[in-house]
Design brief:
The protein is of the alpha/beta class. It contains 6 helices and 12 strands. The protein has 3 domains: 66 residues, Histidine-containing Protein, Chain: A (2-Layer Sandwich), CATH 3.30.1340; 66 residues, Histidine-containing Protein, Chain: A (2-Layer Sandwich); 66 residues, Histidine-containing Protein, Chain: A (2-Layer Sandwich). Strands 1, 2, 3 and 4 form a 4-stranded mixed sheet that branches. Strands 5, 6, 7 and 8 form a 4-stranded mixed sheet that branches. Strands 9, 10, 11 and 12 form a 4-stranded mixed sheet that branches. The protein is flat, with a radius of gyration of 19 Å.
Length: 220
C-alpha cells in the first residue's frame, strides 16, 4: 500500500505557520509576519530577544510542506547592554553548565552578536553552548564556529549512525542511506516530512566524532 503525497498550497502553509507561531510558548505571533512562495517561508518583524527569533524559525520548520525558511526577523533589545557585559554573562553561563567544557569554548561579542569558537568532543556540547548564550539578554545573534574533535573511524561512525536510525521510532530507516567520508556524514534518500528529515540529521549528529552532516534527503 502506497501513501499518497499531500501537496500543500502556499496559502495553507502560511496559515499553518501562523498557527504554529501562536502555539509556540514565549512568542507573540502578532509581532511576526509570514510570507510563503513555493514552500519557502519568509519571516519578518521585530522581537526583543534572539531566542524569540530562533524559536520562530524552528516553529516554521516544523510545519508540513515547508521547504526552507528565510529568517528576516530583526532583534531590537529594550535598552542597551555593552558587548563587555554580554561577553561576561556568556562566559559565566557556560561555566555554570555542567555538560560543557567551558574552558574549551571561546566567546567574542561584536555589537551584540556572539561568536563561539573552540573544540569539543560531542555535537550536543556544541549545540548546548549555543543554547546557553542564545537566551542571554542583549544577544542579537549567534555564530557557532565550535568544531568537533574526531574520536572514531569512518566505518564505526557509519555503523553507529545506521543503528541509531533503525532504533528511532520517528524514522523509516530503510528509506535512508548513510555514507561517511572522514568525519563527515552524508544522508541520502526520501522521507515523508521535514520533521523526519530533521530527525535523521539530528540522529547523525549524535554519533561521536561527526564534525559535519550533509543532509541530501529529499521530501517525497
Amino acid at each position: 500500500m502506497t501513501t499518497a503525497t499531500v501537496i500543500h498550497t502556499d496559502q495553507e502553509i502560511q496559515k499553518d505557520v501562523i498557527a504554529e507561531l501562536r502555539w509556540e510558548q514565549g512568542l507573540d505571533a502578532s509581532e511576526i509576519g509570514v510570507a510563503v512562495k513555493d514552500g519557502v517561508v519568509t519571516l519578518t518583524g521585530k522581537v526583543d530577544t534572539y531566542l524569540k527569533k530562533w524559536r520562530a524559525e524552528e516553529a516554521a520548520h516544523r510545519v508540513s510542506g515547508v521547504t526552507a525558511v528565510a529568517n528576516d526577523i530583526e532583534v531590537r533589545t529594550i535598552g542597551e547592554r555593552t558587548d563587555t557585559d554580554i561577553a561576561a554573562a556568556a562566559v559565566h553561563a557556560l561555566k555554570w553548565d555542567a555538560s560543557l567544557p567551558a574552558e574549551k569554548v571561546h566567546v567574542t561579542v561584536d555589537k551584540g552578536w556572539v561568536t563561539l569558537k573552540g573544540e569539543v568532543e560531542w555535537q550536543f556540547q556544541k549545540q548546548e553552548a549555543e543554547r546557553v548564550v542564545r537566551r542571554l539578554w542583549g544577544v542579537k545573534g549567534v555564530s557557532n564556529l565550535i568544531t568537533l574533535k574526531p574520536v572514531a573511524s569512518p566505518t564505526d561512525l557509519k555503523k553507529k549512525i545506521e543503528d541509531a536510525l533503525v532504533r528511532s521510532a520517528e524514522i523509516d530507516a530503510d528509506s535512508i542511506t548513510v555514507e561517511v567520508q572522514g568525519t563527515k556524514a552524508i544522508l541520502k534518500g526520501k522521507v515523508r516530512t521535514w520533521a523526519e528529515k530533521q530527525e535523521a540529521e539530528r540522529t547523525a549528529w549524535l554519533a561521536p566524532g561527526i564534525t559535519s552532516v550533509d543532509n541530501q534527503i529529499t521530501l517525497a
